[in-house]
Amino acid sequence: MLKVMSVIVPILVLLLIVLPLVKVFKGKVSALSAKRRIILHVVMFFTLLVGVTVAAPIAFAAGEEAAQAASDSGMAKGLGYLAAAIATGLSALGAGIAVAAAAPAAIGAISENPKNFGKSLIFVALGEGVAIYGLLISILILNTL
Fold first, then answer.
1. How does it sit in the membrane (predicted)?
2. Cβ contact 90:135 at 8 Å
3. How far apart are CA 111 and CA 52, in angstroms?
């Protein structure tokens, strides 16, 4: 029962979070309807968050032996590796978006006035700092495994 719930609950949570926004991203709803869907999405997310934090200790209190067996089998290490990968990947994606916005602006500023090179370089480097911080977090996660 615990194994089935550990598969079904995350899928259900993911569907409940994503489904209100499908038509918004496809562009098939008006702006007012999109605003309502986004509000529904936020309310549903926080409702699920509160529900999981309240119900999880009750539901999994009886399964402490199963949790101990799962952590011994390497599930905790697997989730740790997954967390490190997500931290690195999403921070690199964010850094790419930041540099994609800052670098053309920096090139334009330098072409107008070459004295702006130092200031422009700082803004591009700040975007790259996001990736470095994500890599640092993933190294810290890997050190605890």
1. Multi-pass membrane protein
2. no
3. 54
Against a cut of 0.70, is the pTM above it? no
Class of domain 74-145: mainly alpha
Would you kindly state where each structural domain of the chain is located, as residue ranges? 1-73, 74-145
Tens of pLDDT, residue by residue over 64-119, are: 555 565 555 577 788 888 888 888 988 888 888 888 888 888 888 888 888 888 88
* Least reliable range by pLDDT among 27-31, 71-75, 104-108, 128-132: 71-75
Q: For the packed helices 75-112 and 64-72, what is the interaxial angle rounded to 10 degrees?
A: 70
Residue 41 in this model has a pLDDT that exceeds 70: yes
Count of residues in the chain: 145
Return the exposure string of 35-64: e unless at least 16 CB atoms fall within 10 Å of the residue's CB, then b: eebeeebeeeeeeeeeeeeeeeeeeeeeee
| Dihedral over Cα of 73, 76, 81, 86: its sign | positive
Instruction: Write down the number of H helices and E strands in the chain.
Output: 6, 0
